Automatic annotation (TrEMBL), chain A:
Highest taxon, organism lineage: Bacteria
Gene Ontology molecular function terms on file: acetyl-CoA C-acyltransferase activity
PANTHER family linked: ACETYL-COA C-ACETYLTRANSFERASE (PTHR42870), ACETYL-COA C-ACYLTRANSFERASE (PTHR42870:SF6)
Cited NCBIfam families: PRK06064.1 (NF004720)
A family per Pfam: Thiolase_C_1
Residue span, Thiolase N-terminal domain: 4-221
The protein's name: Thiolase domain-containing protein
All copies of domain Thiolase C-terminal, residue ranges: 239-384
CDD domains to which the protein is assigned, alphabetical: SCP-x_thiolase
UniProtKB/TrEMBL annotation, chain B:
Classification via PANTHER family: BLR3430 PROTEIN
Superkingdom of this protein's organism: Bacteria
Protein name according to UniProt: Zn-ribbon domain-containing OB-fold protein
Limits of the ChsH2 C-terminal OB-fold domain: 56-122
InterPro entries in the cross-refs: ChsH2_C, NA-bd_OB-fold, Thioester_dehydratase-like
């Protein structure tokens, strides 16, 4: 299998944007090409991660749309959909195509425009990432699915909601230094206590926001990486796994088995272990999801992720910095863009370009992107150029 | 019967026996005859063996709350007027789980707990469709 590297990375600011779906995607894609010092004519294929443009902005068939906007009209272009893991799954498609030797230069874009639809419609569209027939029709909302996990986790390990508070407070604080983040607002436990309950025990401040945004990376074959402007970030390993859409069919609600499988595959491929990782960008669509992720990724034993969050082990200067970008919680969550945005952030960190959120001495960065309530999980491990 | 606004199931040849059983207020779910294990939702093949050696069996309708949440916000207009309501994963005595709502209980975490015994109640929402909900088992 051929080595694959990231030579270009860019993203729009996440949040409510005046730009359209296609304008956001083009801004990120052009940014990634410029970052790499690449010409559009060098791109041999496009993979676009997007969850539901057909319902959000009434536009399907978006891959050739974006390809043609970028002047890439005659290359193969393909949309990839795996709910909130659409972005990372698009990356996996590009990765496999280069590793297999089909192409040397692939553009991967993630994009979503979620604020054009009324909030009621947006939340219904998101609920369609769960098992519609067997969960959503009963009245289970998307926050409700993660609330079930939170109830199970707090009950099993005897925690109170202060562990959830710790995640929200940390990620809002981290986002203060991220110019791409939706929120630049520090929060306190008091703010959380005064915020409305969404699905017990999750309050408004436990939930990631509704966002617009796009992100893009330029992937190239390892031996072609030296032809581009920026130092190459190496893709050392990735893993993808699936599970039932219906949460209730999972034996244990306090772990995402697909995340564990994806992580094991990524660690094995990279030949590294959790203690080697310098920082992680994880899928904190809800605060509980970050705590479970830190256990599924092997940073902490089952049940210890809550205490680790409370004790600051996942803060910028902790044992394993988690979501120095602010995460989905505060950076924002334009669903199709999220997984690509995590790779963009990891690339900035590995190049030492993360500005006020830069972590010292980053050697290995891990990303963790989840679709639905864990039916798709993609874990990727990136390293600095050799 | 007032007009029912929430989304309704559309029984098909594979799922119809379940909906017929709850309409008759005598729930049946499927069992994999290769493993003896019950499963839900209705399917043509066993999720354990992918065999079609499955049969419909009556179940007690009793179980326990495996996990629950109280939904305070659901912007779907069909549910918006119901909040707060309790959604729970119920584990039936026979071992299968399903997602359902709890009724006849305060939507308050002081009144719902993991492990709480519950039993099915049948809600005849239209002429054709009955939905299974669950309620706490009374002490008496």
């Amino acid at each position: 299998m051929r080595e694959v590297a990231i030579v270009g990375a860019a993203e729009t600011r996440f949040g409510k944007s005046e730009l359209s779906y296609r304008e956001l995607a083009v801004e990120a894609a052009r940014g990634a090409l410029e970052d790499a010092g690449a010409e559009p004519g060098q791109v041999e294929a496009l993979f676009l991660g997007s969850y539901s443009p057909g319902t959000f902005v009434h536009q399907e068939h978006v891959a050739p749309l974006i390809a043609s906007e970028l002047g890439l009209s005659h290359i193969p272009s393909t949309r990839v959909e795996n709910a909130c893991a659409s972005g990372a799954t698009a990356f996996v498609s590009g990765m496999m195509a280069i590793a297999a030797g089909l192409y040397d230069v692939v553009l991967v874009v993630g994009a979503e425009k979620m604020t054009s639809t009324p909030v009621a419609e947006t939340t219904r569209i998101l609920a369609e990432a769960a098992d519609w027939e067997n969960e959503s029709k009963v009245g289970l909302t998307f926050p409700g699915a993660f609330a079930l996990m939170a109830q199970a986790y707090l009950h099993k390990y005897g925690y109170g909601r202060e562990i959830l508070d710790a995640v929200a407070i940390k990620n809002h604080a981290n986002a203060l230094a991220n110019p791409y983040a939706q929120f630049h607002k520090a929060i306190t436990a008091e703010d959380i206590a005064n915020s409305p309950m969404v699905a017990d025990p999750l309050t408004l401040y436990d939930c990631s926001p509704i966002s617009d945004g796009a992100a893009a990376i330029l992937l190239v074959a390892g031996d072609a990486a030296r032809n581009f402007a920026k130092p190459a970030v190496r893709v050392l390993g990735f893993g993808q796994a699936s599970d039932s859409l219906a949460l209730y069919r999972r034996p244990d609600l306090t772990t995402l088995p697909a995340a564990r499988q994806a992580a094991q595959r990524a660690y094995r491929m990279a030949g590294v272990s959790p203690r080697d990782i310098s920082l992680a960008e994880v899928h904190d669509c809800f605060t509980i999801a970050e705590i479970i992720a830190t256990e599924d990724l092997g940073f902490f034993e089952p049940g210890e992720g809550g205490e680790a969050a409370r004790a600051g082990a996942t803060s910028r200067d902790g044992q394993i910095p988690v979501n120095p970008s602010g995460g989905l919680k505060a950076k924002g969550h334009p669903v199709g863009a999220t997984g690509v945005g995590q790779l963009v952030e990891a690339t900035f960190q590995l190049r030492g370009e993360a500005g006020g959120r830069q972590i010292d001495g980053v050697e290995l960065a891990l990303t963790h992107n989840v679709g639905g309530s864990g039916a798709t999980c993609v874990v990727t491990i990136l390293g600095r150029a050799a | 019967m007032s007009e029912y606004k929430k989304p309704l199931p559309k029984p098909d040849p594979i799922t119809a026996p379940f909906w017929e059983s709850v309409k008759a207020h005598a729930m049946k779910i499927q069992r994999c005859n290769d493993t003896g294990k019950f499963f839900f939702y209705p399917r043509g093949l066993s999720p354990f063996t992918l065999s079609d050696n499955v049969s419909w069996e009556p179940v007690s309708g009793r179980g326990v709350v495996h996990a629950f949440t109280i939904v305070y916000q659901n912007r779907d207009p069909a549910f918006a007027e119901e909040v707060p309501y309790v959604v729970a994963i119920v584990e039936l005595e026979e071992g299968a789980r399903l997602m359902s709502t709890l009724v006849d209980v305060e939507p308050d975490p002081e009144h719902v707990r993991i492990g709480m015994p519950v039993e099915v109640v049948y809600d005849d929402v239209t002429e054709e469709i009955t939905l299974p909900h669950f309620r706490p088992v009374r002490a008496d």
